[in-house]
Amino acid sequence: MALKTIGYEEPTPIQTDCLPPLLDGNDVVGQAHTGTGKTAAFGIPMVEQVDPSLNFIQGLVLVPTRELAMQVRDELARLGQFRKLGVVACYGGQPIARQITALNRNAQIVVGTPGRVLDHIGRGTLRLGDVRTLVLDEADEMLDIGFLPDIERILSNTPRDRQTALFSATLPPPIRGIVGRHMKSPTWIRIGNEVETAPDVRQVYYEVLETDRIRACVELLKNHTNDGKVLLFRKTKAGVDNLTQALQRQGIKVVGIHGGLVQGERNAAMKAFHAGEIKVLVATNVAARGLDIPEISHVVNYDMPQNLEEYVHRIGRTARMGRHGVAITFVSEWDFEIFDLLQESLGTELTLEKLTF
Fold first, then answer.
1. pLDDT tens-digit profile of 104-144?
2. Which segments within the chain are labelled E, that is strand?
3. 266, 226, 263: which is closest to 255 by C-alpha?
4. Stretch (H or E) spanning 265
5. How far apart are CA 118 and CA 214, in angstroms?
6. What is the pTM of this model?
7. Number of domains in the chain
8. Contact yes or no for 329/339 (Cβ under 8 A)
9. Which of 190, 214, 243 finishes a domain?
10. Could you report the per-residue pLDDT of 316-348, keeping only the tens digit for each?
């Protein structure tokens, strides 16, 4: 595979460790966060092992969200472009007829969310009896969303002698249960600690009155960010909508994403953000899962993260692939108790910075 021609120069640590066992046909459990290069770590072996002359599904990748399904589909299609592989994304929020047409058009690899994959299995439009390689990507995120029963049902529709790879930032007991029940003597690979924060993220906080959050956010966006992209986190769908509208009224070009939007709205928002037409994105935790946009220079915790894992997940959206980033947390008069617990769990104190308004 001519990897250099599609932008791959030096392998990342997860790629260096995962490629040999996967290319040898072994099962792998990889513990690593998004943005470490793991899509290529499982994608390169999958693309190499699929036979493009056979018109049936040989590779399956399960992911937690629609956005990640599209990202992984695009990456696998890029990796497989010289072999002319058919890669199809199956996810909710898009007309199923379009996916059925794509599945019938010389497809070898499917990337999908568990719910939609099960839907296709039930309709008889997706048959997994010839799957050679199966990947569970962001497994802990799929567990959090409640996909574990769906995953078990999907696995039961695949051959027992398939190759399986599982990637997860954390490995709680239910995930280890999947490994024990469905994987064969896997190679265990761990890149970084479970709750390790990226070393290239500068972590700061601002003390902000509850009534001044929006004002502080506007000040920050107008004066304290560079030419990179900014990701703002809110707890709820309504919070995303309210903040997006408030910032738009202040003349800031911003889009918001959450699970309540129809797929066309989500696609349009992400397309504008990816292209740099819009440089500020407001999102819920769930909507931002799996986002891998290297140009995000700032992450802003507009709402306080409720635990260490949530904090690490959020700030992990910046400082991707060797870049530097800034993680900013707003701390109001109601947040100090949980903020102190967060710093204690991190084992470090965040840097206090001042706003000028």
1. 998 999 999 999 999 999 999 999 999 999 999 999 889 87
2. 28-31, 59-62, 87-90, 109-112, 133-136, 163-168, 187-190, 201-207, 229-233, 254-257, 280-283, 296-301, 325-331, 351-352
3. 266
4. helix 263-275
5. 42
6. 0.67
7. 2
8. yes
9. 190
10. 888 776 678 899 999 999 999 999 988 888 888
